[in-house]
Specification:
heterotrimer, A alpha/beta (about 325), B mainly alpha (about 300), C alpha/beta (about 350), B: about 300 residues, mainly alpha, MetI-like fold, 11 helices, disordered N terminus, C: 4-stranded antiparallel sheet, 10 helices, disordered C terminus
Chain lengths: ~325, ~300, ~350
């Protein structure tokens, strides 16, 4: 049963989520108090590098974290006001299955190699008991053609390995959109693809966003993709949120030193020859986070207070949110 | 404290370089294994020194004398066999041939099997296929039967024994070595080596062999027991170690008939085989961990 | 004309390189279809310059890297390094050739033997070529190289798995420098790294080039990085170079439609103006390298294709007078991709 929300209420609200994993070398703190909201029909980008916790966040929302060795230590995930972490698994499956969909990064691994793709898409309908077998198949073909796969009827009978990388990604998108979810989480949807194919996928996702009025969480490390698609951006580092801003503000007036560093380090197609400004060092491993602010060892503004306490996520002068003791200071 | 080491952000703490001996000390099972091997070494020395004499002294009054009593003197603490010879002395005397034949056979099959496997894996093509087919053929014969036939035809000398035991066990090494080489050959660091100008011989020696060696040693340690047992069977029917020389396997085989009334005749040599093979298994397991930098931390913790 | 200066011999000269992989044999062993991974590639590289090589999957750039490094022999064609034929060299000549041309691989995790320390991995170069450096000087040289790539001397005794991706890539660069080559082939050296770390490695490569006069063949799929580091750029499609020329011209006035499409497809890291940004969106997938289209290979996805394109394969030559060599019958210098019209291809 679909629950409707007021247009200005967040569709998804993550509050102070903490997730860790037990491993032979100790406790790995993957998420250390992640909070953000997803609004109706918006594209929210989760921007971060390796170890930032962006994929773990998606996994937590989808209920894909195995509780040993992982553990959700605290926090809430509110979907339409219901806390996903505190309802029974059956209810969660039901609630989530129709409302939230996930597009995996590696389409080849996520699709079953021994079943035709049309069958796999139709399975979504069958599992949720919605349509008859023939109706499901018809709908699957329609979905394939809606995501831009030519000769959909014929291709629905083919197997995943017969598709190219870009086509497989479209199949994943079709599968995700099958039940008309209100939230689509796309985990690095373009990372493994060639740039021309990436452009096609971005166009497809943009068109879908307009057609279905769904909200998207776009997980990526690519600033270009963020700039093309996102409305708002959540920047993650070391398992925490370090900046939340509207996409235009993020690119023109970044508040957090990490965001500034990322923008400066990215080679731009329109800049020529000038020296790139890298961020020294490497992203921290979640198994060995620095004390206080996770970015401190690489930050040009670091002071003693940065080692002493974790800066809270607070509103800055330009209405962004930033987790820094010295937001907005030029680096 | 040095300034934030920015290049080190995210780096794991440095592993301390511990000497091999101390690494050994950190693995209790490997230490126990080492102790047993030390005992064996002592026994071999003692045998040459003075125990040899006792192992041939027949004393029919002490036939099948039971163990764990000092009534007959310390030399008979583990009992006496069906001819009244001291079990301790016999075990010591048998240690040499047992270990000698087993090590020689296993060593032979290890070295030759490794070489053939490396060649088969690296060169593939017709040479590789030929080696593999020959290995298949050998593997197709029941080991015992093959050994029987060969020793019957060529006579049961120690050399023949070692050769036939070595050859019948070789296919396992050939297959495993070949399989590992096929996989390693495709790895990027082999390409990197080739670009540096390495010859195939160099790449096999420097890169492939150290990776393949621990696996082959593990197989060797398992084979040790197998070879000892096969040798015992052959000795029992007279085609292995010839009496009056002894091997543990022969002692087990000879003691079989006395299990109900003189269990120590078969039991102690059996235990000797068991402890020896377990010891080598443990050591090869330790070796595998110690030589793999990514697994070493298990010992260093 | 009489006093015309002879241009110096290029460092690397590749002529009509072909590499076909056999795919099937017919039942009688007759018909054999082949994957034509490289189908006639020619270019030159001068000493001390960086040639960027871009293209998408299936274009043949990985095959080109492997073939140039002699990790496989070509089906046809030749390549000369410092005048020496790469593929006919053997014995000591080949060994010498190896010293002059080195590589940095894409995957910093697999490029090292996990059982070798950093020092051992780097020193292997000198063990294979003992005449370059006597054993007594090797530890000091390792320290020197590590410092030059931004690592510390203590790192020499550690194992690869103890390092991050960016650091491993630096070690890879140190190893490539060990024999003091003239040319380093960089096969997607920063693709596997985080963005904040990519810039470090790119800066390191430019610095080393400045200091040592190294030439790079920089193979990548990230056009922005290629633009940053290259002096000239070559664009590959389905086993052939379709356009090659100075970096500024390629990025601002590319004449080949594929180059234009490629440039247009790169997402711009600036949201301003994104609603109005038009881009060329190519339909469909690249055709199979087993049976490429007749004539111009790009014609099946090209919006300018005419009949001549299926009949006659366009030659790679000067067509637009700005230093670019283009393989297109209709090479027209258009303005850069931002101004290109959006075109959805009709099949």
């Amino acid at each position: 049963m679909r629950v409707t929300t007021e247009p200005d209420q967040p569709v998804l609200s993550i509050q102070d989520l903490r997730v860790s994993f037990h491993s032979s070398s100790g406790r790995i703190h993957a998420l250390n108090g992640v909070s953000f909201d997803l609004k109706h029909n918006e594209v929210l980008a989760l921007l971060g590098e390796s170890g930032s916790g962006k994929s773990v966040t998606a996994a937590a929302v989808m209920g894909l974290i195995d509780q040993p060795p992982g553990s959700i230590d605290s926090g809430r995930i509110l979907l339409n006001g219901r806390d996903l972490l505190r309802i029974a698994p059956g209810e969660r499956r039901q609630l989530c299955g129709e409302e939230v969909a996930l597009i995996f990064q590696d389409a080849l691994a996520a699709l079953n190699p021994v079943f035709p793709v049309g069958w796999q898409i139709a399975e979504v309908f069958r599992v949720h008991g919605r349509l008859s077998r023939s109706d499901a198949q018809r709908e699957a073909v329609r979905l394939l053609s809606a995501v831009g796969i030519p000769a959909a009827e014929q291709r629905a009978k083919e197997f995943p390995h017969q598709f190219s990388g870009g086509m497989r990604q479209r199949v994943m998108i079709a599968m995700a959109m099958a039940l008309k979810p209100r939230i689509v989480i796309a985990d690095e949807p373009t990372t493994a693809l060639d740039v021309t194919v990436q452009a096609q996928i971005i166009e497809t996702l943009k068109a879908l966003r307009v057609e279905t009025a769904a909200s998207f969480i776009l997980i990526t490390h690519d600033l270009g993709v963020v700039a093309e698609m996102a409305d708002r951006v959540v920047v993650m580092y070391g398992g925490r949120v370090v900046e939340v801003a509207d996409v235009y503000t993020l690119f023109s007036d970044p508040q957090h030193p990490y965001t500034r560093g990322l923008l400066a380090a990215q080679p731009r197609l329109d800049s020529e020859g000038s020296e790139l400004v890298p961020i020294p060092g490497s992203p921290p491993s979640p198994a060995a986070l620095p004390s206080g602010c996770a970015f401190r060892p690489r930050c040009p503004l670091a002071q003693e207070v940065c080692a002493a306490s974790v800066p809270p996520l607070a509103r800055t002068a330009n209405t962004s949110l930033s987790a820094c003791h010295f937001p907005g200071t030029p680096t | 404290m040095t300034s934030p080491l920015m290049e080190d952000a995210g780096l794991l703490p440095p592993s301390r370089r511990i000497s091999l001996l101390r690494l050994l000390a950190r693995d209790p099972s490997a230490m126990v294994a080492l102790v047993w091997i030390f005992v064996l070494a002592l026994v071999l020395v003692a045998n040459v020194w003075f125990l040899q004499a006792y192992s041939v002294r027949v004393d029919l009054k002490l036939r099948n004398a039971p163990p764990f009593t000092l009534d007959n003197g310390w030399i008979y603490y583990l009992g006496a066999d069906s001819l009244g010879r001291s079990m301790i002395a016999r075990l010591a005397a048998a240690a040499g041939p047992s270990l000698g034949v087993a090590f020689a056979a296993v060593g032979f099959s290890l070295v030759c099997g490794a070489i053939l496997g490396l060649v088969a894996g690296w060169m593939s093509g017709p040479v590789g296929t030929l080696i593999l087919r020959v290995a298949d053929m050998i593997q197709g014969f029941p080991t015992f039967l093959l050994a029987l036939v060969v020793l019957y035809i060529f006579g049961p000398s120690v050399v023949n024994l070692v050769i036939v035991l070595g050859i019948t066990r070789m296919p396992a090494y050939v297959r495993v070595a070949r399989a590992e080489v096929l996989e390693i050959r495709e790895r990027l660091f082999i390409d990197a080596s080739r670009v540096l100008g390495a010859s195939p011989w160099w790449m096999v020696r420097q890169h492939v062999l150290p990776i393949v060696a621990p696996t082959l040693l593990t197989i060797a340690s398992v084979n040790l027991a197998m070879v000892m047992l096969i040798e015992s069977g052959l000795s029992f029917i007279g085609l292995g170690i010839q009496p009056p020389a002894a091997s543990w396997g022969l002692m087990v085989a000879q003691g079989r008939g006395y299990l109900s009334n003189a269990w120590w005749l078969a039991c102690f040599p059996g235990l000797a085989i068991m402890f020896t093979t377990i010891a080598f298994n443990l050591l090869s397991s330790w070796f595998r961990m110690a030589t793999d930098p990514q697994q070493r931390w298990r010992l260093e913790l | 004309m009489i006093n015309e200066t002879i241009p110096p011999e290029p460092l690397l000269k590749v002529t009509d390189l072909h590499k076909h992989f056999g795919v099937q044999r017919g039942p009688m062993g007759g018909h054999k279809s082949a994957v034509r991974a490289l189908d006639g590639v020619s270019f030159e590289l001068a000493a001390g310059e960086t040639l960027g090589l871009v293209g998408e999957s299936g274009c043949g750039k990985s095959t080109l890297v492997r073939t140039l490094l002699r990790l496989g022999s070509p089906t046809a064609g030749s390549a000369r390094l410092e005048g020496q034929d790469i593929y006919s060299a053997s014995g000591p000549t080949l060994k010498h050739l190896r010293r002059r041309m080195q590589v940095v691989f894409q995957d910093p995790y697999q490029a090292f033997n996990p059982r070798f320390t950093v020092a051992q991995s780097i020193s292997e170069a000198w063990q294979i070529h003992p005449e370059v450096l006597p054993p007594s000087q090797r530890p000091d040289r390792v320290t020197e190289l590590l410092t030059q790539v931004g690592l510390r001397p203590e790192h020499a005794n550690r194992f690869p798995h103890e390092f991050s991706g960016g650091q491993r890539q630096r070690i890879g660069i140190a190893r490539a420098l060990a024999l003091e080559p003239a040319l380093i082939v960089c096969d997607e050296p920063v693709s596997a790294l985080d963005v904040s770390v990519q810039a470090q490695v790119v800066n390191l490569l430019t610095k080393l080039q400045r200091e040592r006069g190294l030439a790079f063949l920089f193979v990548a799929h990230d056009l922005a990085v290629v633009r940053h580091i290259s002096r000239r750029v070559a664009v590959m499609y389905l086993g052939k170079i379709v356009e090659i020329g100075p970096v500024a011209e390629i990025f601002s006035a590319a004449a080949h439609p594929y180059t234009q499409a490629l440039l247009s497809a790169v997402p711009v890291a600036n949201p301003v103006g994104r609603e109005n940004r038009s881009r060329i969106v190519l339909r469909g997938d690249p055709p199979s390298p087993v049976s490429p289209p007749s004539g111009c290979r790009f014609r099946t996805r090209c919006w300018m294709a005419q009949e001549i394109c299926s009949v006659e394969e366009p030659e790679l030559k000067h067509r637009t007078g700005n230093g670019l060599l283009t393989a297109c019958h209709f090479a027209a210098a258009q303005a850069n991709h931002v101004k290109a019209h959006k075109k959805d291809l009709d099949a």
